[in-house]
Amino acid sequence: MPPLESPSCEVLAMDSKKKPVKKQKEEGDGVSRRDFIRGVGGAIAGMAIVASPGEAKSRSKRKAQPVLGIKGPVGFNLKINGQTHRLLVEPRVTLLDALREKLKLTGAKRICDRGSCGGCTVLMDGLPVYACMMLAIDAQGKEISTVEGLAPENRMTPLQSAFVEKDALMCGFCTPGFVMSLTALLRSNPNPTEEEIKNAIRGNVCRCGTYPRIIEAALASARRR
Length: 225
Fold this sequence. Notes:
The chain is of the alpha+beta class. 39% of the residues lie in helices and 11% in strands. It has a 5-stranded mixed beta sheet with strand order 2-1-5-3-4, with helices on both faces. Strand 1 (74-80) and strand 2 (83-89) form a beta hairpin. Helix 5 (158-165) packs across helix 8.
């Protein structure tokens, strides 16, 4: 088999010559994409300098204003466990932080702090809510109940007694949230079924896994009531 012949210098020289590349233009009016983008950019830049100095100053003032026009702490009243409390906090403070830090009501626990565990459950107008997911300022005019308000004279409710008797708590950190959720259930439905109890506590998480005992405690409390 004859050896392959190497390309001649003339062929290499012809291949090395590149043909000029023509710029592609957009279909339609024949304006290239680069020219179009350059034109749009210039138009936007021109619009940006149309505003008069007075208008620019006015815009800068509007941007500097705080959200909702509120600066610093604000004062308002909250009704907690039947008592009215005067608070002075920033609007961004949650109901959970107001309860724990300002009123020293630490029964509602900060666990996840994102509305997924139920450890901070309190009652608002009789319904269970996550205190970490609500601003304290939005609780004005509402009836707030915490676990401390269930036994003001240090006498446990039938539900709390059932939790102790049925050993429905281990570390106890999540227990106040379960008690508040079940308290709301038993007040609206004194004789719930097991499925209704499970549905009532589906927003509460127990990392110790005491769910069977919690359900037993709720059923025992319902029978006593």
